[in-house]
Amino acid sequence: SQQGEEDPQALSIQEGENATMNCSYKTSINNLQWYRQNSGRGLVHLILIRSNEREKHSGRLRVTLDTSKKSSSLLITASRAADTASYFCATDRAGANNLFFGTGTRLTVIP
Amino acid sequence: EAGVAQSPRYKIIEKRQSVAFWCNPISGHATLYWYQQILGQGPKLLIQFQNNGVVDDSQLPKDRFSAERLKGVDSTLKIQPAKLEDSAVYLCASSTFLTGENQPQHFGDGTRLSIL
User: Fold this and answer.
1) Nearest 10 degrees: CA dihedral of A92, A8, B35, B110?
2) What is the mean pLDDT of residues A99-106?
3) Parallel/antiparallel/unpaired status of strands A105-110 and A55-58
4) For A26, which DSSP code?
């Protein structure tokens, strides 16, 4: 299966701390995307990183991609209570035009 | 811009009944997706449309699920007859199209379906 797997499944931190989530996948990709999902809502796109990129930043988010290890990480710095949500990585297959979502990491930021 | 609209937000039916969900994507988005998200899991693609044509329906249980996107804009997803295992959130998403690269997808808030 191409589906990515996030690690850890659940993460609980104090407000102000950094949160790191990891994603592993199995086959070659064109790009990898990270999404956030608040409880009872749809997914929101956070960041896209292409297979020829190693790191990308967006505000308090930093994403890395290691295609040799088939893994990616999402770092949220200076976390806030509003960051409490589930985070999913999504990968494509080279040549395919859709995404496979992982099982998600549930992040809880305690005020 | 207006987001992806879905209705209804909640639906409760008994098994063997039928149900339909509606999605209006972001204006100008050529690609539309329907996903099934079971509690505690990531979304699973059911069907993908490019304008009004089906691109991928390999994971759609075609004996009971059907979907259409007439005129390449709105879409409906139908389940008939429903089974207990169909209890899930059904998410619609849309994106622009760029050959060779998956684009960010914009999601609606989904329809939460409960089968009794």
Assistant:
1) -140
2) 93
3) unpaired
4) S
User: Cα separations (Å) of B40 from A32, A37, B53, B89, B100?
Assistant: 21, 12, 31, 11, 31
**CA-wise closest residue to B47 among B20, B69, B15:** B69
Residues A27-65: tens digit of each pLDDT: 888 899 999 999 999 999 999 999 999 999 999 999 999
Residue A63: closest CA among A49, A52, A77, A79: A49
Instruction: Pick from A99, A100, A105 the residue to mutate for testing the B interface (most B CBs within 10 Å).
Output: A99
Asked if A43 lies within 8 A of B41 by C-beta distance, the reply is no
- pLDDT tens digits, B49-98: 998 899 999 999 999 999 999 888 999 999 999 999 999 999 999 998 87
Say if CB A1 and CB A99 are below 8 A apart. Answer: no
The answer to whether B56 contacts A98, with C-beta atoms less than 8 Å apart, is yes
How many angstroms separate the CA atoms of A34 and A23, rounded?
10
